[in-house]
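The authors assume throughout that readers already know how a fold can be written as discrete tokens. The format is easy to grasp once an entry is in front of the reader. For illustration, here is how one protein appears when written out as sequence plus structure tokens:
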Amino acid sequence: MSVTTTAEGRIPATQQPDGGMRFMQTVRDRRGTLLFILTAILLLVVFPVAMSNFRLNLVGKYLTYAFVSVGLVICWGYGGILSLGQGVFFGLGGYCMAMFLKLEASDPISTKIQSTPGIPDFMDWNQITALPMFWRPFKSLLFSLGAIPLLPGLVALVVGSAMFKRRVGGVYFAIITQAVASILSILIIGQQGYTGGVNGITDLRTLHGWDIRSDSAKRLLYYLNAVLLLGSVYLGQRMLGSKLGRLLVALRDKEERVRFSGYDVANLKTFAFVFAAVMAAIGGAMFTLQVGFMSPSFVGIVPSIEMVIGVAVGGRISLLGAIYGTLLVNFAKTYFSERFPELWLYLIGALFIGVVMVFPNGLAGLRSVTGVSLRDGWRRLVRAVRGATGASARAAAAQGGAGATVEVSTGGMAMVSVGQLEGGPPDDDAAEARRAEGGSR
């Protein structure tokens, strides 16, 4: 419905939202405020009281990934721009902070046993005799703090402008961001004398004389992490509630209509991408402080995809949901790797597939889940498992031999167990199970 305004710019009473719509909007706003307050209590009160220093430091590390999730909600969830290279900006922010901390730890007195005192140890190991020019500005804390958002933001601005001005988007843009992540990872590993190589920048000790390795420092950094993250969520909520947020939603749903309305789509996309890059860079800098090192293992394709998985599990259109999704994925990763070191990758994959298929909107969509949608999601998951099992059984049968017989029987057992879970008859005949399922529907 088109909306007209009076000469004073007000909407006529006949076109204003009715009382029911205003009431629902008020309820949603209050619900969001309540959830934000509960999240703040959880992060600032419950976790510090209930957890040991070791576990709290782990949660602090997980919260640094949540900065990336907040940016991805804006960029992917609302802007429709899937970036599979957020590890690039996470790593750039982390390396900017690590370079300052490493130079502070490499004073001439601490490095007097080196052949060239006053430079990082990995440079001395690679026969570099003078501090490179691009390292020297990072002796200043102010420069380093400014470089954390500006350098990744500039990289995102160049990449985004080059791609979006040429209307590159969708899966092509996702692949390009993956390529950028791979290139930067290879570059960091290859330039070992300047970046620390595959080991990264390690042995970070102090921040302006303050020992960041002590338990009290780790706890304080955790609180700083949590406060900055909550501030980022608040900033994101205010932005999404503005005209810019509505434009991002329109851009995601009907890009051509936004373009024909006179808006510069490329600039809007570039802004969303740069915002996500800056959020990721802040998370990377906090990661370096919280954990005490930075390496190329957090820059490449795999960590970038893991960051996207956290957002998908939590809900890509919910800022707080993305935080909970990130915490859940990383908690599960730690738990499964400790309890099942040989199977934890499969268990993480099963968690991701199960949540996405049963709850397409992630954990944030649980409040809108009904019995019908839950049943439909469960059936989608069952069909996917059954299809994968049947495909493996057919492939084994095609090979022939005794091994094929074993695989076919295993596939039949899997079908029976799935049929039992779904409520079907415990029959070895897969066709009979499918007919019973069709009859129940």
